[in-house]
Automatic annotation (TrEMBL):
Signal peptide: none
GO MF, any single term: molybdopterin cofactor binding
GO CC, alphabetical: membrane; oxidoreductase complex
Lineage: Bacteria, Pseudomonadati, Pseudomonadota, Betaproteobacteria, Burkholderiales
Origin superkingdom: Bacteria
Protein name according to UniProt: Formate dehydrogenase subunit alpha
Keywords in alphabetical order: 4Fe-4S, Iron, Iron-sulfur, Metal-binding, Repeat
Similarity field: In the C-terminal section; belongs to the prokaryotic molybdopterin-containing oxidoreductase family.
Domain 4Fe-4S Mo/W bis-MGD-type per the UniProt entry, residue ranges: 8-63
């Protein structure tokens, strides 16, 4: 039920949900958020989706935790900030004294600001003395960042959302923007309705697939051979940008010889599509003048996630779809500030600005007045492995329900159960806190603090507090500084505002130096923006790549996932998100959006439901080699026979009991997109 309160104040801020980063005005009255309306801004042009516009009532939910808590003898008890911080400081000192600083890990958050993520990784490195710091980018787009950085030199989207209206064609790969990035999805839809060509590569018949010139409904796990086949067509049919190849690309001859083995007629059957459709898709992508590629987690959350993105970059290099408006390889980031959390240095191998420790380390040491830790840090998945092995003893997680959202619940449970200290910092007692938390620190929401977010197209935007935090809740940046002070590092953690933190970020990150609070308040700016007179860089790679004048094509062989169907597990399950909810449901699950979509479902093709004698709406038990979950069945022609789709927003259904331990070969993102299962009446 909507609050009848009359707005007293309107505050301009940035939506916290997806990586589009829509600008919105938040109405407050009596210290509460009472309405949200879209802002007319280049990012969202006066639109918001159902999440940004209506999913705000979580902020004042009755079960919001507003006091620090410590679990003693199995029960949560309220504590003062002094007690909670002293408790944590004592435990961390003891763990580090006994096991060393690498026995502790820190996880930043896509819901925290850039400034807070910067402080989180600085805390890990300076206060704790470890590079064990990571964030949720590990499980979604680290494969994109790795592939883009390795091949082109910048681990972020090549172009910006403003290019959607310029592109002559779209190649959408493993991404469903209508549901997961709705304002961008609507802009793509409008562009297609005006005449832009559209290729959709997705196992499901999504709303945009209905509009597509070609829909390649591939078998999950076959991205690499499919995009190799498109590359083979480009070369065989001469659909190449010869000038771009001559000036900007190396390795053509070896690459051409390599992909000749992936001719569509050879691989189409394995990919579950027709050779003619692969050829048609390649012709559309190459023939548009400028074609914009967007990809999502259907590309990255695979055994070959990083390598799959590399096969997309090959297509852009062959056709010259880089370094010009209306083109580019563009990961659509799932969570609003996931780009920012990794970019700020919540990554074991890189410092702020994705600068390698080995290159930028001395500058940071001089600025921070310390020696950086010498040992290589652990990423999130390696932290879980180390916890299971007894080497990691403590974990501090900001705004991240790792127990619910990591793949393979059994493995995550084993890891978290082995820790001596689990610090959860969030708005609510999430599943990680309920099952494994030692200390809970109540955080301010994005409605209640200042700072910046970084969206999918490298735009840095302000968030502004519209209401005060409830009870004793505090912004993450305050909490990090308070704990640093307890551990003897008040100096270096004495910022009086997020703006002061951001100024330190700008001093250490050359590509962000021009992004002052004053400028981003009045201009829409994309990094790189190296000084305050620089206009920002909406399109990367226009005259050269950061790695040099040329980029190299990458021959990528196909390595099938071990997660295959057999007689016992004959169906392939893919997991993903829905329009109405966001990730673990911690926020949207406490809003009226639950009335629009009350539960996760298992989506099944009508033919499979008929064969199994199952009816729409009935509960079904899903068994994988890794676990079992019970969900209501949703019979829909959106999924193909032999395949299933489930969302993972409801804690009580816990879909990650099913998912496997398979990880990306290069950066260890879990393979959420392919799990062999069987289904029976629940
Ligand atoms: Fe928020 Fe994304 Fe919806 Fe925009 S499209 S309102 S950023 S969830």
């Amino acid at each position: 039920k909507r609050s009848p309160a009359v707005p007293e104040t309107w505050t301009r801020t940035t939506c916290v949900y997806c990586g589009v980063g829509c600008q919105m005005d938040v109405a407050s009255a009596g210290g509460k958020v009472v309405a949200v309306r879209p802002a007319d801004h280049p990012t969202n042009r006066g639109h918001l989706c159902v999440k940004g516009r209506y999913a705000y009532e979580f902020n004042h939910a009755p079960d919001r935790v507003t006091t620090p808590m410590i679990r003693r003898d199995g029960a949560w008890r309220e504590a003062s900030w002094d007690e909670a911080l002293d408790f944590i400081a004592d435990r961390l000192r003891a763990i580090i004294a006994e096991s060393g600083p690498d026995a502790v890990g820190v996880l930043g958050s896509a819901r925290a600001s850039n400034e807070e993520n910067y402080l989180a990784q600085k805390f890990a490195r300076v206060v704790l003395g470890t590079n064990n710091v990571d964030c949720c980018a590990r499980v979604c787009h680290t494969p994109s960042a790795k592939a883009l950085k390795a091949m082109l030199g910048t681990g972020a989207a090549a172009n910006c959302f403003d290019d959607i209206e310029i592109a002559g064609a779209f190649l959408l790969c493993g991404v469903n923007p209508t549901e997961n990035h709705p304002v961008v999805g609507a802009r793509i839809r409008q562009a297609v309705l005006r005449g832009a060509r559209l290729v959709v590569v997705d196992p499901r018949r999504t709303e945009l697939a209905e509009l597509a010139d070609v829909h390649l409904a591939l078998r999950p796990g076959t991205n690499v051979p499919l995009f190799n086949a498109m590359a083979a067509v480009l070369i065989e049919e001469g659909l190449l940008d010869q000038a771009f190849l001559a000036e900007r690309v190396t390795g053509f001859d070896d690459f051409a010889a390599f992909v000749a083995a992936y001719a569509p007629e050879r691989v189409a059957g394995d990919c579950g599509v027709s050779a003619a459709d692969i050829r048609a898709a390649a012709r559309i992508y190459a023939g548009a003048g400028a074609a914009m590629c967007f990809h999502g987690l259907g590309m990255t959350e695979h055994l070959q996630g990083t390598e799959g993105v590399m096969t997309l970059i090959n297509l852009a290099l062959l056709t010259g779809n880089l370094g010009k408006p209306g083109a580019g390889i563009n990961p659509l980031r799932g969570q609003n500030n996931v780009q920012g959390s990794a970019q700020m240095g919540c990554d074991p191998a890189t410092l702020t600005g994705s600068q390698l420790i080995k290159d930028a380390g001395p500058r940071f040491e001089a600025a921070w007045g310390c020696r950086l830790p010498a040992t290589h840090g652990l990423d999130l998945l390696q932290m879980m492995d180390a916890a299971r092995a007894g080497r990691l003893k403590a974990l501090w997680a900001f705004g991240y329900d790792i127990y619910l959202s990591l793949a393979n619940e059994a493995a995550t449970r084993d890891a978290l159960a082995g820790l001596d200290l689990v610090i959860v910092q969030d708005l609510f007692l999430n599943e990680t806190a309920r099952a494994f938390g030692t200390v809970f620190l109540p955080a301010a929401s994005f409605f209640e603090k200042d700072g910046t977010f970084m969206n999918s197209d490298r735009r840095v935007q302000r968030i502004r507090g519209a209401v005060p935090p409830p009870g004793q809740a505090q912004p993450d940046w305050w909490i990090i500084q308070a704990l640093a002070g307890r551990l003897g590092h008040a100096q270096g953690f004495a910022f009086d505002s997020p703006r002061a933190v951001w100024d330190e970020v700008r001093a250490l990150w050359p590509d962000g130096a021009g992004l002052s609070y004053e400028r981003i308040a009045r201009e829409s700016l994309h990094w790189p923006c190296p000084d305050e007179d620089h206009p920002g860089t909406p399109v990367l790679h226009q005259s050269r790549f950061p790695i040099g004048q040329t980029a190299a094509l990458a021959p990528i062989g196909f390595v099938p996932t071990p997660e295959t169907t057999d007689e016992t597990y004959p169906l392939l399950l893919t997991t993903g998100r829905t329009l109405y909810h966001f990730n673990a449901g911690t926020m949207t699950g406490r809003t009226p959006n639950t009335a629009l979509r009350p539960t996760d479902t298992l989506d099944m093709a009508p033919a499979d439901a008929a064969q199994l004698g199952l009816a729409d709406g009935e509960p079904v038990r899903v068994h994988s080699r890794h676990g079992t979950a019970t969900l209501p069945l949703h019979v829909t022609a959106q999924v193909q026979p032999g395949q299933l789709f489930a969302t993972f927003h409801c804690p009580e259904l816990f879909v990650n009991r099913l998912t496997s331990t398979v990880r990306d070969r290069q950066v260890r993102a879990p393979e959420y997109k392919v799990t062999a299962v069987r289904v029976e009446r629940g």
